[in-house]
Amino acid sequence: MTKQKFISYYRVSTTKQGQSGLGLEAQQAAVFSFLSQRNAELAGEFREVETGKGAEPLAKRPQLRAALNACRKNNATLIIAKLDRLARNVHFVSGLMESQVRFIACDMPEANELTIHIMAAFAEHEAKRISQRTKEALAIAKARGVQLGSAGPKNLRPNIEQRRQEAIIFANKLRPLFNGMNARGLSQRAMAKELNDLNVPTPKGGIWRISQIQRIFHKIT
Q1: What does DSSP say about strands 40-49 and 4-12: parallel, antiparallel, or unpaired?
Q2: How confident is the model at residue 8 (pLDDT cuts 50, 70, 90)?
Q3: Smallest Cα–Cα separation from 68: which of 113, 29, 40, 100?
Q4: Signed CA dihedral, 7, 102, 52, 29: sign only
Q5: Comparing C-alpha atoms, which of 178, 167, 165 is closest to residue 221?
Q6: Could you please report the per-residue DSSP string of 98-141?
Q7: pTM exceeds 0.70, yes or no
Q8: Distance between CA atoms of 46 and 9, rounded to whole angstroms?
Q9: What does the pLDDT look like over 178-201, one tens digit per residue?
Q10: What is the pLDDT of residues 123-165, one digit of tens each?
Q11: DSSP result, 133-186
């Protein structure tokens, strides 16, 4: 029985990832595991480290071009570990389909061209949403007077002062409770235990410790 031929393509998007082997090795393991369960032959491997951004992604991916040529030459199928290793861009995936090279993703081997196209479209949509949320958050920070890209004292001081005021407000809300525990003669360790037993949240939502009790007393006395 003739073995089906595959050409693998591995990609990471940063030079640091490529040098460490992280990402590439995981993709290679996924491909080997997939092929070991089938009557398949790995006819070639191609690795690439790049960003893949821009209007013409293939122009920035010489190894992908080489992998596609190898697929045509060997009548092989291009195999990738995950769809997002190619691109989160529906136009790019469409162009790959038009290259008339069969390809398969290990994480969705049952998917046909239509479902891959739809999933790529959703991936692109989500990437745009994340980008938009980031821009909105930066705009809000800038409106509050935060100097974006600066970590100097002028930028940090307003945020530190805001957190200090919020901590004082929180401590004052707990003043009656702390005064009552203090009047009962509870130790700071016992206070922390009682607050935790009552499910009273700390300023950051964690559990109470003696150091936090001491900080509250410092603010209310």
Answers
A1: parallel
A2: very high
A3: 100
A4: negative
A5: 178
A6: HTT--EEETT-TT--HHHHHHHHHHHHHHHHHHHHHHHHHHHHH
A7: no
A8: 5
A9: 787 888 888 989 888 888 876 677
A10: 666 666 666 766 766 666 566 555 555 555 555 455 566 677 7
A11: HHHHHHHHHHHTT--TT--SHHHHHHHHHHHHHHHHHHHHHTHHHHHHHHHTT-
Give first-to-last CA distance, the chain, whole Å.
85
Residue 181: Cβ within 10 Å count:
19
- Specify the amino acid at residue 201: P
Amino acid at 127: A
Q: 219 exposed, middle or buried (CB, 10 Å; 0-12, 13-18, 19+)? A: middle
Q: What angle do CA 143, 131, 99 make, to 5 degrees?
A: 160
Q: How far apart (Å, rounded) are the C-alpha atoms in residues 12 and 19? A: 10
Distance CA 120, CA 136 (A): 24
Cα 203 from Cα 211, distance rounded (Å): 13
